[in-house]
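Honest question from a wet-lab person: if I give you the sequences of every part of a complex, can you actually get the arrangement of the whole thing, not just the pieces? Trying it with mine:
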Amino acid sequence: NAGVTQTPKFRVLKTGQSMTLLCAQDMNHEYMYWYRQDPGMGLRLIHYSVGEGTTAKGEVPDGYNVSRLKKQNFLLGLESAAPSQTSVYFCASSYAQAYNHPQHFGDGTRLSIL
Amino acid sequence: GQQLNQSPQSMFIQEGEDVSMNCTSSSIFNTWLWYKQDPGEGPVLLIALYKAGELTSNGRLTAQFGITRKDSFLNISASIPSDVGIYFCAGFSGGSNYKLTFGKGTLLTVNP
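Yes, you can. This is the full assembly:
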């Protein structure tokens, strides 16, 4: 029962480098989300997708891009990493964003920008 | 935007004690969710509440959906060391809004 799998689990980048975080879900969920978690800030939504080929901005989208080319995958890209993007990133998915379909989370990617 | 006020921010309790935490909002929510996050892992859903006034239990955990639809409570009875973690409330307002609003979390420490 893989559920939501995030790759990589840890990464250290230098300022200005780019990278892509991968999220894969095997539950046939339509909706997928990327959050960042910072101390004392809870979970903040970066981008989300309501289906294959669609993406939308969340609460804190600046500096990030996303793509949903396949239903099971949701990619989060940092084009030019900045120290302010040091955080723990969580991907989540849900069958639908209806009241009875809660989100399921991956175990996170810990990203440090030097 | 919508905000959830979760309290307390942290709790230090002795094993065997009961715990209570809550979330309040100025906005109405149609669904309240409670998640737990263990160190180094992602949040895991504990309890989901779908109707105002609903009281739902999951083992030693009990959560309630406030009558006003602007608050929710989570109680843990007879705490044990593995209850340690961060507890998050989350609200969903429904309609065309696809987003969950999360509280900032309650860090629970249980002393054996």
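Two things worth pointing out. Chain A touches chain B through 26 residues (CB under 8 Å). The longest strand of chain A covers residues 31-38.
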